[in-house]
Amino acid sequence: MTAPDIGQQYDEIASWWNERHDHSTYGLAQVNRALAFVPNGGKALDVGCGSGGRFVRRLIEQRFIVTGIDASAQMIGLARANHPDTLFINANIIDWKTSETYDFILVWDCLFHLPLEHQAQVLSKLCGLLSKNGVLIHSFGDGDGDHTDRWRGQTFRYSSMGITRNIEVLHDRGLSLLHLELDQFPENHVYAISRKL
């Protein structure tokens, strides 16, 4: 599956996603755990931001200047409507480039949509976008390899390079692991919180 496909797939469910997740609490406890490791304020990047909502509001409450990026044009349109004073970028994270660095990077439930061969590259790139002492929280699949699954009437591809390889990439890019949790509800995945040394 190529990167634009996932954007098109989420275009088809963007309105449903916005209604379901705008005021959801899913993932907030984990993000709050990560935010406890950083001072309030600075610049934050939300990768796979979808239509914004709970995570963007939480980052703004913590006085972060937020940039969101998502492959779905429809999601980005909704995010801009939901948060008109926030910068949202419609791009796929594989190809996106920036000269900015960020104090906090959030990558929740999106890396597993990337083709397996791009996962280490993208995670490495995100590590490089962290400021010194910046914090990254990212979730990923708890297995190795890839598979497809039916969801919302579409076939989605999922992949994961596994826990060990994720930790190796963090270490190789100069990050220190602060928290690792096998988080099995409501999704079967892992999340990690790391700091740039």
TrEMBL record:
CDD domains: AdoMet_MTases. GO terms for molecular function: methyltransferase activity. InterPro entries: SAM-dependent_MTases_sf. SUPFAM superfamilies: S-adenosyl-L-methionine-dependent methyltransferases. GO terms for biological process: methylation. Pfam families: Methyltransf_23. Gene3D superfamilies: Vaccinia Virus protein VP39 (3.40.50.150). The keyword Metal-binding does not apply. Keywords: Methyltransferase, S-adenosyl-L-methionine, Transferase. This is Methyltransferase. It comes from Algimonas arctica.
